[in-house]
Amino acid sequence: MHAFHLLVGPSETSELQRVDFEAVGPEHAFQIARNESEAAHIELWEGELLLARMSRLDANVWKLLPLIPDTAVGQICRPTDDSRSCH
After folding, report:
1. pLDDT at residue number 59
2. Is 31 within the bounds of a domain?
3. In a domain, 73, yes or no
4. What residues make up the domain containing 32?
5. How far is CA 10 from the centre of its chain?
6. What is the value of pTM for the model shown?
7. Rg, the chain, Cα only
8. Confidence category of residue 79, pLDDT binned at 50, 70, 90
C-alpha cells in the first residue's frame, strides 16, 4: 500500500481540506478520488507529486484540469506552498 492524500473542497478557489488514505497504486487512488461524494473540486497527491486535479460537473462526471497552468508535466508541486507552484 502507498500513501496518498486528497485536497478536497466545494470549489477550486475555496480552502481545501486534506484527506490522507492508502491505496494499492495511483490507479486505485484515482478511483477513490472519483468516489469522493462531498467534494466538487479534488487534487490527488502522492507525497509531493500532484497526480490529478479535477472538478465535478455532474453526479458521475468529472472534468480533469491542468496540473498547474503553464507548467510541464512531471514537475514536483508542493501542497503546503500557498501558491501551489511547481519546482
Report:
1. 82
2. yes
3. no
4. 2-65
5. 13
6. 0.73
7. 12
8. low
pLDDT at residue 77, rounded to an integer? 54
How far is Cα 36 from Cα 39, in angstroms, rounded to an integer?
6
Place of cell 510541464: 72
Give the dihedral sign, CA 45/15/19/41: negative
Number of Cβ atoms within 10 Å of the Cβ of 38: 9
Instruction: Give a yes or no: residue 58 inside a domain.
Output: yes
pLDDT in tens, 36-49: 877 899 999 999 99
In total, how many domains does the chain have?
Answer: 1
Separation between Cα atoms, residue 31 and residue 13, nearest integer Å: 23
CA distance 5 to 23: 10
d(CA 17, CA 41): 11
